[in-house]
Write a structure and sequence with these properties.
Elements: H1 4-24, H2 29-48, E1 58-59, E2 68-76, H3 81-92, E3 97-100, H4 102-107, H5 109-117, E4 121-124, H6 138-156, E5 159-160, E6 162-163, H7 172-180, E7 184-186, E8 190-191, H8 200-210, E9 216-220, H9 225-239, E10 243-244, H10 247-250, E11 256-257
Parallel strand pairs: 1-7, 2-3, 2-9, 2-10, 3-4, 6-7, 8-9
Antiparallel strand pairs: 5-11
Helix pairs in contact: 1-2, 3-9, 6-7, 8-9
Length: about 260
């Protein structure tokens, strides 16, 4: 399996062999440039592709042999949209996972309490969701994780164990921070693209054409058009005899420390 560790070993050996070959038969400077560019490209791919498990293993999929899916939401809570989504989930008797931003949880504590009271689970999604979160030091990354965890604990009495990396980007620093915090990293297998597509029909068609057994589906509960989408998509799943399971049951995870 391609991973950060074995990639480092492979390219270290490749570079050493290239240097030795260069001593015997002088090589072009561009050979070295090519090696470095391939190395950087693989690292970038690993960072951007959470399902690759390049830097750390993330739970991105359930059992493909079971006709079930899990619904997950990022970037909340939102003071207006999240309650409407909760209304839809309650009407449809569906439990979901919400990966929340710490500073938004502080702004909307009653929404966090409602998410918990209605049987959904809560995971972390950083405190700030800063654009440069992926460049933070391990200490600063862990501080954001802990601050968000503390906010949720103060509101629910539960200590989170699940974390979804902002933007789905991973790197060695984040991997070390997640391991140090004893969190489980969670990704997805089906992305709704609701951050860039606002048309309900386009979103629905994308999901209908892409959904499969075992999918962890990513939505964002700060996008108002998701409310209408769920009112159609959830009945579609039920009509197609999909079970919609809560993420921890779906993927055999522990959501909290009790």
């Amino acid at each position: 399996m391609l991973s950060y560790k074995n990639t480092l070993i492979f390219f270290a050996v490749a570079l050493l062999l290239t240097v030795l070959a260069d001593i015997i038969i002088p090589l072009s400077f561009w050979v070295y440039v090519g090696i470095v560019l391939v190395f950087i490209s693989i690292l970038a791919w690993g960072s951007a592709t959470i399902r690759s498990g390049f830097y750390l293993q993330s739970v991105c999929l359930g059992n493909r042999n079971t006709r079930a899916v899990a619904l997950t939401f990022d970037d909340g809570p939102d003071g207006q949209v999240t309650p409407m989504i909760l209304d839809v989930l309650k009407e449809q008797n569906v439990k979901a996972a919400f990966f929340i931003i710490g500073n938004k949880a502080e702004q909307f504590p009653e929404v966090i309490k409602r998410i918990d009271a209605e049987g959904h689970i809560i995971g972390g999604h950083s405190y700030s969701h800063h654009f440069f979160f992926d460049l933070f030091s391990r200490r600063r990354t862990m501080a954001e994780m802990k601050r968000t965890s503390d906010v949720v604990f103060s509101l629910t009495g539960k200590k989170m164990l699940l974390f979804r990396p902002p933007y789905g980007v991973t790197n060695p620093t984040l991997a070390r921070a997640i391991r140090a915090m004893n969190f489980t990293s969670v990704g997805w297998s089906l992305k709704s693209n609701d951050t860039v597509i606002k048309d309900d029909d386009l979103l629905l068609n994308r999901l209908i054409s892409g959904v499969n057994k075992g999918d962890i589906i990513l939505f964002h509960d700060n996008k108002p058009w998701v409310v209408k989408l769920l009112k159609t998509f959830i009945p579609y799943l039920k009509n197609k005899e999909y079970s919609i399971d809560r993420l921890d049951k779906f993927a055999n995870l522990h959501a909290y420390v009790y």
